[in-house]
Write a structure and sequence with these properties.
heterodimer, A: lpxc deacetylase, domain 1, 2 domains, 5-stranded mixed β-sheet, 15 strands, 28% strand, B: alpha+beta
Chain lengths: 247, 281
């Protein structure tokens, strides 16, 4: 497992090293079983504890190769223009339950802080792929996970609003730095009109959902995405987990 | 799918269903009821100014008949015991918070009479531009008001022109709205002489029990596929009901002049399942 060398702070979150594999957000482990909502955003929940828009910090961690961390929301003031803040206020939760970036970015400040602090390896790296192809479809969107040679990393082949993007992501943090910077500087398609910017942002979302939440490292991801594409990204990894196809 | 009842029969049926029954209490807003004479049944939908309210009242009456819940119609008996389910055009969302209302009055100096017509128009346009919603990151002009709902927003309510220009705005308020914040929107113009803000209705934040919340959340999952909370963008009867054990829910959109059979069915199912869930827990 790989964790941050020291505590770091990004936009809306603080990230601390972890002694056990997995990423926890406000104490809830990022797994398909703990995903409470997946459409235009991803929420993690356990009991009444819930964290909103987790794909932003999780995407940043995945792009940096972090596989173990404690993520804590740090926001103390309300921003009621954000629907997630209104949700929290309605339920007696706090602003810190919203860990997504206010401008819809995959937390570039967090990536910069992790690059400065460094990532340390603790124990042997875990590599996982799927034993057979898994496809999940909803409406106009579909996503297929295909097996890939152990150690090969993730190959993304994404289509969105008529554009196509392919990318190689190293789950151990060796992803090309210029790609990472381009991805974390791209606004969510929920707020950006441009197809290319939305598609570039989607790389971080797929990394969040497939690599961090899904726990896969060596996989081909072929996806045709719609406006609520977390349904297929989370849907596919949930199907892989439920069918026992991780190996 | 059940057929929508004839528009003229809905209020009669609601009147018959009202008064009896056991908790929880069910109230459709606005109180006083819809005017069925302006609503037509066309195909599987109501159409007309009060189509949504009539459809939700029909759904509430059907749900209360099926469950024995207590329907309040045409008005709420606010002293009734038990939790409240307030039926509003929430598009399947749940709500425990309703925005407030206030009024801002901006007094402006005007030049001598010969220059007043031009200055009045210019100043009015400048005030309206300053009052328009804006955000650094979020689009504020979408139909549903996804981002606007949580912002302090202004609607022009009146203009008086005499020796000075007085402009009144209705203000939709949030828990973050302050008199100082309202004044800041206008007072940086040299010709603004005064800004007065008065709160009319405060933001209402209910605190329903886990039992009521869980019943509504489970019902929403079974009916619309997910549960999500948002604020209602204005005060309603919800804001006036005493106590915190209340929750708003319902289908349709504010101001929509069409309400179809699917919305009726979902609204009815949402209510029935919430009532049943609350009683089981």
């Amino acid at each position: 497992m790989r964790t941050v060398a020291e505590p770091v702070v990004g936009t809306e979150v603080r990230v601390e090293p972890a002694d056990e594999p997995g990423v926890r957000v406000n104490g809830v482990l990022a797994t398909p079983a703990n995903v409470a909502k997946a459409d235009v955003r991803v929420d993690l929940a356990a009991g009444r504890e819930r964290s909103f828009v987790v794909e932003h910090p999780l995407g940043a961690l995945g792009l940096c190769g972090v596989t173990a961390a404690e993520v804590t929301g740090v926001r103390e003031t309300w921003s009621f223009a954000r629907p997630e803040h209104r949700f929290c206020y309605s339920c007696g939760l706090e602003p810190a339950n919203v860990v997504g970036h206010p401008a819809g970015l995959p937390n570039p400040a967090l990536v910069e802080a992790i690059h400065e602090a460094g990532v340390v390896e603790r124990g042997p790296p875990a590599r996982r792929t799927v034993s057979e192809p898994v496809t999940h479809e909803t409406g106009d969107a579909s996503l297929t996970l295909r097996p890939r040679e152990r150690g090969a990393g993730a190959h993304l082949d994404l289509r969105f609003r008529g554009e196509r993007l392919t990318a190689e992501v190293d789950p151990a943090g060796g992803t090309e730095r210029s790609l990472v910077e381009r991805v974390v500087g791209s606004t969510t398609p929920f707020l950006a009109d441009g197809a290319v910017e939305g598609l570039t942002h989607a790389v971080a979302d797929v990394v969040s959902d497939v690599l961090v939440v899904g726990g896969l490292t060596d996989v081909v991801v072929e996806a045709s995405l719609d406006e609520a594409y977390h349904r297929v990204t989370v849907g596919a990894v949930r199907a892989a987990h439920e069918r026992g196809l991780l190996e | 799918m059940a057929e929508l009842p004839p528009p003229g029969a809905v209020t009669d049926r609601a009147r018959e269903a009202a008064g009896g029954g056991d908790p929880p209490n069910v109230l459709v807003v606005p109180e006083g009821g819809p005017d069925p004479s302006g609503v037509e049944r066309a195909g599987d939908a109501y159409q007309g100014a009060d189509a949504g309210t009539l459809g939700r009242l029909a759904a509430a009456a059907a749900a209360c008949e099926a469950t024995g819940a207590r329907l309040h119609y045409p008005e709420a008996e606010a002293t009734a015991s038990g939790p409240w389910l307030v039926v509003e055009p929430l598009g399947g969302l749940l709500s425990t918070v309703h925005a407030g209302r206030g009024e801002a009055t901006v007094g402006c100096a005007l030049p001598p009479p010969a220059d007043r017509p031009a200055a009045t128009g210019e100043r009015l346009r400048a005030l309206c531009a300053g009052a328009a919603p804006a955000h650094d990151h979020y689009p504020v002009d979408d139909e549903r008001g996804l981002f606007r709902t949580g912002m302090t927003t202004f609607a022009l309510a009146g203009v008086d022109v005499g020796d000075r220009l007085t402009v009144r705005f209705d203000v939709a308020t949030t828990p973050a709205t302050t008199a100082a914040g309202v004044a800041e929107r206008f007072e940086d113009r040299r010709w603004v002489e005064s800004v007065r803000y008065e709160q009319r209705v405060g933001v209402e934040r209910a605190t329903p029990s886990d039992r009521l919340r869980a019943a509504a959340e489970t019902a929403a999952v079974g009916t619309v596929g997910d549960w999500e909370y948002d604020w209602f963008p204005e005060p309603t009867a919800f804001s006036r009901l005493p106590g915190g054990e209340k929750l708003a829910l319902g289908t349709g959109s504010p101001g929509a002049e069409r309400f179809d059979g699917g919305q009726f069915e979902r609204c009815r199912a949402l209510l029935e399942r919430t009532v049943a869930g609350w009683r089981e827990r």
